[in-house]
Design brief:
Layout lengths: L1 H5 L5 E6 L6 H9 L3 E4 L2 H10 L6 E3 L6 H9 L3 E4 L2 H13 L5 E8 L17 E2 L4 H10 L4 E7 L9 H18 L6 E3 L19 H15 L7 E4 L3 H4 L5 E11 L2 E6 L3 H4 L10 E4 L11 E6 L8 E8 L7 E4 L20 E5 L2 E6 L4 H4 L6
Parallel strand pairs: 1-2, 1-9, 2-3, 3-4, 4-5, 5-6, 5-7, 7-8, 8-9, 11-13
Antiparallel strand pairs: 10-11, 10-15, 12-15, 13-14, 16-17
């Protein structure tokens, strides 16, 4: 991803979106490769402060930020993108407490996009609305605060199609707003995340390549660049960086037939594989007890999990080899929005291991009874 963008434009910042997967080991690896941190809460911000050497390389988004959150982030010279008018009041109070400090701030912008982009919601609730004048009002209020200056414009929209055209449009709109309302005096244009990525086995999901995203976005950005206006471009990928980095391994506990359906019961659940319970089957390999991959498509199974929920279907209509008790299923592409959405439900959460130089080490141990109930009073 970095090469795809930086080969076309030298001022690109890739900020890894913590909410996709904030296992510290992985975040540290990404930061060592130059990634900024994009966080959406104080929890994530404090974690980023422990993992990243330069707090100014943290981008603090999210719709709910307290005064203390904003105070700490601005004290660290992090990039803070304000989401609502109450946050402007927090900014004002911070500036009153620090009258000699020049404060750079960002603003999240909300504008109408064509519905053919496949937006998950018709009207996003985040940021300041352009069409009703809230964006302009926000700029005016910030200008009234001594030593406060808007340096970042941010927009993020969730699309089912994740086509490169949506990012082209977001880039164009942010550049137009920067030049029209801020005279082009903007350091960062942040077009958010939600870049599509799917393994080749999931043929129902086809998204642009990183190169296609980069060409479309940079081509549009360069249309707006002038001698005075040449901002950093920030992108905030999550799933496209973390998705394929993790597999989930579970054991076959039982194979049984109920009327005309064959069921494979495993010691994991849909919460480990796809907690959003989307309709797609993830890539899977069947291994025997020795670890050898089993071949074939002669059988059709429903793979179900270890909870008591009827809807705990890990896979539906799996066509594969004969599966036996003691076999293993290895699911690929489970690195994003799985670990962070795995609830404390019925079973403790499993360990996470990293493979390096053909050896494994534990980067998160399995949860214990004590962990599970650590915050409870008995």
């Amino acid at each position: 991803m970095d090469q795809a963008f930086s080969s076309l434009y030298e001022k690109v910042i890739i900020a890894y979106s913590y909410k996709a997967n904030y296992i510290p080991y992985m975040c540290k690896v990404l930061h060592s490769l130059g990634a900024y941190a994009e966080v959406a809460s104080r929890l994530e911000y404090d974690l980023a402060c422990r993992l990243i050497d330069t707090p100014s390389h943290i981008i603090f988004n999210g719709p709910v930020k307290s005064f203390q959150d904003i105070e700490k982030a601005l004290h660290n010279y992090s990039i803070v993108n304000l989401d609502s008018f109450y946050e402007i009041e927090h900014l004002k109070n911070y500036c009153l407490k620090n009258p000699r400090k020049k404060v750079d701030i960002g603003v999240r912008v909300n504008f109408d996009l064509p519905q053919e982009f496949g937006l998950r919601v018709k009207t996003s609730r985040f940021g300041f609305c352009l069409e009703n004048g809230d964006v302009q009002k926000a700029f005016r209020r910030i200008r009234e605060i001594p030593h406060a200056n808007v340096v970042s414009l941010h927009a993020h929209f969730s699309s089912r199609y994740r086509d490169h055209y949506i990012y082209k449009d977001i880039t164009a709109r942010l550049c137009e707003i920067a030049r029209r309302y801020l005279n082009g005096n903007v350091t960062y244009i942040d077009i958010g995340g939600n870049f599509g990525h799917a393994p080749k086995e999931m043929k129902d999901l086809e998204f642009p390549t990183f190169e296609e995203y980069a060409r479309s976005i940079i081509r549009e950005l360069k249309k707006h660049i002038t001698r005075q206006f040449k901002p950093f471009l920030i992108i905030e990928p999550g799933i496209s960086l973390a998705g394929q980095a993790y597999d989930f391994v579970c054991n076959v506990i039982e194979v049984k037939k109920v009327r005309r359906k064959n069921f494979v019961v495993v010691d994991g659940s849909v919460h480990n594989i796809k907690p959003t319970m989307h309709k797609f089957n993830l890539p899977v390999k069947v291994l025997d007890s020795r670890g050898d991959v089993k071949q074939g498509t002669s059988r059709t199974y429903q793979v179900v999990g270890n909870t008591c929920m009827e809807k705990d279907y890990v896979l539906k209509n799996l066509k594969g080899p004969e599966v036996k008790v003691g076999d293993y299923l290895v699911f690929a592409n489970v690195g994003a929005y799985t670990i962070v959405l795995n609830p404390p439900f019925i079973h403790p959460r499993p360990p996470i291991l990293v493979k390096k130089n053909n050896t494994f080490s534990i980067i998160r141990r399995g949860e214990t009874f004590r962990d599970f109930f650590a915050t409870c009073k008995f």
